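ok so I'm stuck.
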Amino acid sequence: MVRVFLGIIKGALIGAGVGYAAMQLGVTSGPVAYVIYAAVGFLVGLVCGKAVWRQETLWTPALKGLFGAAVCAGLYWGAAKLLGGLKLPFTAQLGAPDRPVIDVPLLVAPALAILYGIFVEIDDGERKAKTPPPAAA
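replied:
not stuck anymore, here's the structure
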């Protein structure tokens, strides 16, 4: 349960940061949006799970990041096809622009980052070795 919570927190922070930066740069859709969401997946792959300095090799977090880039870009593609023009009225009241949800990186990036962050945290969590039960006398 702690791993899921860590995945949510780390993913939300990374996604919100990158989503905010994308909003400030004016990136909402198109090919550049795929790059933004790939960057979200890459950063989540590096940060979530076992710390970079505790990995056996540096290739492990790099591969998690590259896989995350592909996963988040793919999830964005699927969400764009599925959610196309969906607008949620309450998001405008919260300060988000009145656009389709998929065109607001401040909403989409944290969602994708949280999903991938939970996956990485659960997959890459510390596993405690089981100690055999004491032998009966």
